[in-house]
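Chapter review: from sequence to fold.
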Amino acid sequence: MTYANLFLILGSSVLHVVGHVVLKSANDRKAAAWWVLVWSIILFLPLLLFGLPVIPPLTWGILLLSGVLQTLYFWSIINAYQTEDLSVVYPLARGSAPGFLLLWSFLFLGERPTLGGVVGILLIAAGLYAIGLPTLRAWREPLRALRQIGPRWALLAGLCISLYTVVDRVGVRRLDPLIYLYVVIWITLIFITPATIRAVGWKGLRAEWQASRFNNVIAGFTTMAAYAIVLYAIRNGTPASYAGSIREVSVVLGVVVGVVFLKEKGTAMRFVGAACVAAGIVMIKLLG
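The token string follows.
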């Protein structure tokens, strides 16, 4: 992986952390996620001025599949946070995604990461798992909690992250990444709107807009821009397993923002996890 692609992915993580903070601080996460999608579409509407290219049927199928997986991801992570504690949901959702992605990239994309690259991915996964734990002794708790519905939603969210990353890797070879992602966001919004209306109603959407206002506008821009940058890096030759793992550094940045600006408690496990993620990125760059 080139330094240019590495810095692109790290830069996208800085943007993506805004979306993490907005959803984490939202009064109603289901309504907030809907507004983020809406503003992503509105802010990048000028793309349509250049016209959409002719999209073959097979590419439409890829777009539709990605949209379904993104919808399922949003719904899974929101339901997980509403039914279980952050310390259980976070390790399962974010820590499982790089591991799943490594497997799918090997099976379906033909990627063959080096031994150093695999160790780097696993270090990132371990770091993301550790960040959400209160203490090292509690490392089994998220796994034990899989008997409950909330942690199962979290694991499903991690699975969806890995699957839509693999699908998108195929899609951006057929369509410009920004156009590709814009269409996917439209599909996701279409699918998620009925469920959101049933869950929170128009009243709930209005209440969330009044509470968050321009936070959701900013998150809409950064969420779209951040993932588009990652897709460009993948299109430029970065293996999906590497890109999908490194982009999770946004989780570490989210922890920093939470501790420094939101005055959250900075546990030792958060710092251990962050160190593992950093070490994993270094290994991927140097040995991947």
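Two observations follow directly from the output. The two ends are 7 Å apart (CA to CA). The chain is about 80% helix and 0% strand.
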